[in-house]
Amino acid sequence: MNDTELRELDCWVAVHVFDWKRISADTKRCWLMPNGNLGDLYDYPFYTTDPAAAFALLEKCAEKTCVEIRKQVHAENKWAVWEDGRSTELNTAGLEGGLSDSLPLSICLFAQQLFKPETK
To answer: Domain containing 61: what range?
Structure first.
């Protein structure tokens, strides 16, 4: 993923998981954050690259389902994040969609599947 795609995924996580609200198309003060403060265009956290932000996201995922994290040696040492090993549709999708060289990115890819608007 390039930098733009990573920031788009960060934005998706902020909106769909952490309930950030877009209140304006203006580049100044265009976000209403969950704490009630207003935020600038790129104030949402770097979930895809910042381990602390990714861990907060992982906690949100764990509130919704049991989560497993593994370093997959058979998959080129990529990180995998998925639902707790039960053979469910989400498990398969999470395992395949959550593989990445970066654990924060893998968490984000898993969360994107877990918090799809139709399953939230």
So the answer is: 3-114
Domain count, the chain: 1
Kindly state whether residue 105 falls inside one of the protein's structural domains. Answer: yes
- Per residue of the chain (120 residues), what is the pLDDT tens digit? 899 999 999 999 999 999 988 887 666 667 888 888 888 777 889 999 999 999 999 999 999 888 888 887 776 888 888 887 553 444 444 444 567 889 999 999 999 988 988 744
Asked whether the whole model's pTM tops 0.85, one would answer no
Q: Is residue 119 part of a domain?
A: no
Q: Could you tell me which residues come within 8 angstroms of residue 48 by beta carbon, excluding any fewer than 6 positions away?
A: 1, 6, 7, 9, 10, 54, 102, 104, 105, 108
Residue 108 domain-assigned? yes
